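hey can u check if this looks right to u? its 178 residues, i copy pasted from the old doc so theres a chance i mangled smth
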Amino acid sequence: VTHPHIDQSVVNKRWVEELEKYPDQFTVHQIYQAYPDGVIDVAKEQALVEEHENLVFQFPVYWFNCPPLLKQWLDEVLTYGWAYGSTGDKVKNKKFMLAVSAGGQEYIYSEQGEYKLTLDQVFSSFQLTALYVGADYQPLHAFYGLDTNPSEDDDVPTHQDVANNAIEYVQKLLALSK
């Protein structure tokens, strides 16, 4: 989980709460809490990755990208000889998935919408990263429309919508292991 202000989050915090109901199924690792100074323990992170069969990167959309600490994590943890290269096979065949919360409505992220791109297209670099390291990229999970500054025209999601989405998220992750 990469959310710099998880305490202020609605969606990501609710997703974490739902995941934590299944401690035998999921390891919830919050990297902003683990590394508040931004200094990542690469060996510790690589060991954690090696202990698990799936990698799910959960975060809010930040300027059509991931939060900066996740980018740093990718740069520092997915190293040559470990994640890729002739001897780099530690993430090979692991399922690799994104779970993102987008403030904008889903229609904004479409060819007809304001941004002209879907979230899949926005995050194609993650799909390419998975391909590069030999991981098995899975369709992303998203929650749309809980912007901090919605317009009067927006159909603002309810707390029940968030709760339902959290349950769908967990079900999707449980299915990854099958």
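The chain has a mean pLDDT of 93.
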